[in-house]
Design a protein that fits this description.
With about 240 residues, this protein is an alpha/beta fold. The protein has helices spanning about 25-35, 60-65, 75-90, 105-115, 160-165, 170-175, 225-240, and strands at about 20-25, 40-50, 70, 90-95, 120, 140-145, 155, 185-190, 200-205, 210-215. The strands form 2 sheets. It has a 5-stranded parallel beta sheet with strand order 2-1-3-4-5, with helices on both faces. Strands 7-8-6-9-10 form a 5-stranded mixed beta sheet. Helix 1 (about 25-35) packs parallel to helix 7 (about 225-240) and helix 3 packs parallel to helix 4 (about 105-115). The protein is globular, with a radius of gyration of 20 Å.
């Protein structure tokens, strides 16, 4: 018929199945792996574990398994040890952005990304809008974090905070690297007390405006780790025909 745009005789392509490998089998890694196993558009490849159990404890066997996305959910030490090789093989999503305050390591990953054409994605994106803000080389990012269990306070450059609190400021470092940069980001860290919520607030100052962002996590134990929830949300977006922003 006139105006026909497709040939009904052509076979329809099979839906794309994306393979996800996971570094780490702790709470974040377990939640992500469970979601992938239950998702029709995703396939769980291998999970790299520190201790014995299902799957593998051998990093080279893990890295030899093809994947579309490798999720690093094991912390800065694992990211430093496996990040370059993982990024050379697939897109890499990491929860350990604080490791990137090391200029040599960050430059190494930049080179690997350029050569492999794979992307490094930093989690968790709690400070919404930072990566989508207007470009301004003179911008300033100020972050305030209240977290239960932090024994001492800190106020100063984010770069130094990442040395003192490497497991606590990954989201802040991710926001800085995707925003105005480490040198233009400061952070205040305080103990929220044993019964208060974990809160993160940020203000981005730039030439065209002043942007605020905040998140507060429920103090009770959630059903899913918040960082795992962020990764799962991103995986759902990867599979969706519609994307916000």
């Amino acid at each position: 018929a006139d105006g026909e745009l497709t040939d009904p005789g052509l076979p329809k392509g099979e839906p794309e199945i994306r393979t996800i490998n996971v570094i780490g089998a702790g709470r974040i890694g377990r939640d992500v792996a469970s979601f992938v196993n239950a998702s029709p558009g995703l396939r769980l490849g291998r999970v790299l574990r520190r201790n014995g159990g299902p799957d593998t404890t051998d990093p080279q066997a893990f890295l030899a398994t093809p994947a579309d996305i490798i999720v690093e959910a094991a912390g800065p030490a694992a990211f430093r040890a496996l990040g370059p090789e993982a990024l050379a093989r697939a897109d890499l999503w990491t929860v350990s952005a604080s490791a990137l305050v090391n200029e040599e390591f960050r430059s190494q990953l930049d080179r690997v990304a350029d050569q492999s054409r794979h992307q490094l994605r930093l989690f968790s994106p709690w400070l919404s809008g930072i990566g989508h803000g207007p470009y301004d080389p003179s911008g300033q990012l100020e972050i305030r974090m209240m977290r239960p269990g932090i024994d001492e306070s800190y106020s100063g450059p984010l770069r130094l905070a990442a040395l003192f609190f490497p497991d606590d400021v990954n989201s802040a470092v991710a926001a800085a690297l995707c925003g105005p940069g480490l040198e233009r980001t400061s952070i205040d860290i305080d103990d929220a007390g044993p019964h208060d919520a974990h809160r993160i607030e940020a203000e981005l100052w730039c030439g065209v405006g002043h942007f605020k962002s905040s998140v507060e996590f429920h103090p009770d134990d959630p059903d899913i780790h918040p960082t795992a929830a962020a990764i799962i949300g991103a995986l759902r977006s990867e599979m969706s025909n519609f994307r916000y922003g």
